[in-house]
Amino acid sequence: MRAISRKFCTEGGECGRQTSVTAGTLFEHTKLPLATWFQAIFLITLGKKGISAIDLMRKTGVSYNAAWRMKHKIMQAMMEREDEKPLAGLVQVDDVYLGGVRDGKRGAGRKGRCRSWRP
Question: Where are the alpha helices (DSSP H) in 1-119?
Fold first, then answer.
């Protein structure tokens, strides 16, 4: 296999076809540097709740549309990976954030809550 002058492109010995090393990955057809993608992956996986596209935009220095697109591509790849290999057996979780909607009323009107009012 010999290297072609184009960045990240190689040519096969037998077939002579040019193939990019990013072909078939979420980095395919991107104009952003791979370092920016890796920084975005790090920032998204760093916190329990992830990161918003605006924060990703600020920290990576790309436009909002690029940050939104990167975030959704990374999240999609993470979801597809999780769907392929579901957890089995004994699973231990430490310091996890579980989202969802709580049932019932919230605030001062909920059951068992007394309202205090001062005239």
Answer: 34-46, 53-60, 64-84
Helices (H) and strands (E) in the chain, counts: 3, 3
Predicted TM-score of the model (pTM): 0.61
| pLDDT, tens digit, 9 for 90 and up, residues 79-88 | 888 777 877 8
Residue where the block lists tokens 């924060």: 55
Q: DSSP assignment of 70-95, as one string? A: HHHHHHHHHHHHHHHS---S-----S
- What's residue 1's pLDDT? 44
Tell the residue number behind the tokens 């005239």, with chain if given: 119
In angstroms, the Cα distances linking 1 to 4, 9, 70, 92, 106 are 9, 11, 31, 46, 65
Query: Phi/psi of residue 9, each to 5°?
Result: -125, 135
Of how many residues is the chain composed? Answer: 119
